[in-house]
Amino acid sequence: MTVTYSRRVADAGLGTFSHLLLRWKGSIYKLLWRELIIFTTLYYSFSIIYRFVLNEGQKRLFEKLAIYCDRYAELIPVSFVLGFYVTLVVSRWWGQFESVPWPDRLGALVGAHVRGTDEIARLTRRTLMRYANLSGVLIYRSVSTAVYKRFPTMKHLVQAGLMTAEEHRQLEELPSPHNKFWVPCMWFVNLALRARTEGRINNDVALSAILNELNTLRTQCMKLYSYDWISLPLVYTQVVTVAVYSFFLACLIGRQFLDPAQGYAGHDIDFYLPVFTLLQFFFYVGWLKVAEQLINPFGEDDDDFETNYLVDRNLQVSLLSVDEMYDTIPLVEKDKYWNESEPQPPYTAASAEHRKPSFMGSALDIRYLYTQIHTDTDTQIQTHTDTDRHTHTHTERYRQTQIQTDTHLLDPFPRPQLKRANRDCTFSKRWDLLI
Predict the structure, then answer these.
(1) Which residues neighbour 20 within 8 Å (Cβ) at sequence distance 6 or greater?
(2) Can you tell me the mean pLDDT for 188-204?
(3) 334-348 residue pLDDT tens
(4) Cα separations (Å) of 309 from 207, 317, 323?
(5) Which residue from 217, 182, 183 is spatially nearest to 109, judged by alpha carbons?
(6) Bridge partner residues of 392 (DSSP)
(7) GO terms for molecular function, please (predicted)?
(8) Distance between alpha carbon 212 and the CA centroid of its chain, in Å?
(9) Whole-angstrom Cα distance, residue 100 to residue 140?
(10) Are 161 and 316 in contact (CB under 8 A)?
């Protein structure tokens, strides 16, 4: 589903984005071609009626109507309303992606703290991770049509091995009318407490770390549930849709090419193809279609999230991390740079140009070069030396070739001297500032 083109735009060059315009899957053309055909057909229908069906009197009335529609259609704030709406939709879309639950960290904690190589320990680790994945699948079934089609009933989850028959029975018998995606999380907590009691989890700190990560996973699931429950206000979506479509309904008449012989302003040339009107339709309605696609990324559009892939990937990775990868370590041996203080991995010929020296700071590249030109006897500079405390009079002029600067340390500004005002003054406690 997700259309990835990162490799195509890895390097900026001539026509980098232009190559993407030729793609069909996930493109704006695929989203927009039906609406564009309908708009073009209606536009040419009005054009044919105006040119070949109406009589002269009716044409004059149509021309006045076209000028009226063109003038007042610009009062519809399409750009403002649509731009703000799309910004909200894109922010919401990215927030939903950041709420996707990933069990990787939880799998690492379970594999690290639930110890034991016997069958019971292995069963405990695998069951803990299966519960975490089951919670994610249950929430995906609630928000994603693709996952729901894959697991339309709870029995399909039992057949897929994500849930046992006994777990299904307990889940169905639970007297709750609400979504039960949180139930496997409670099974996880109970099983983790049993493992702590049996000594398979060594200490309470490890147990707390596991449960905190589980709560993070449960929070992510709850966010997905909340995004699905609370949509953008319906009235805002309706306002945007009405604004866009009413604007282009007015353009069907207002953007017609009128008879140049009538001398209407802006109608000096008669064309048959409204190029810029079609471009405007392409941009505005395309913008609306982008919002339409991103407002719920858990459907089956080209750019929607790969929820079924997430189900498969998370289950496999989490079970591998606590089972096959448990206490499995490659042979520990000295690395290639054992006796080198500055290891330098080699470069291939294709990547040699990317080898750069370490950046030490931009200010360290500054170089000063002073050249004494001549002595000006008319100007005297008094300098005070620390060695002999003598005063010398001399003049120098320097020219700095890169940056003109004075390297002498300057004394701070002298403090202003304060003198008590005359006692004869009206205010006896006034102070005068001497500059």
Answers:
(1) 5, 8, 9
(2) 96
(3) 999 999 888 889 999
(4) 30, 12, 21
(5) 217
(6) 383
(7) chloride channel activity
(8) 26
(9) 10
(10) no
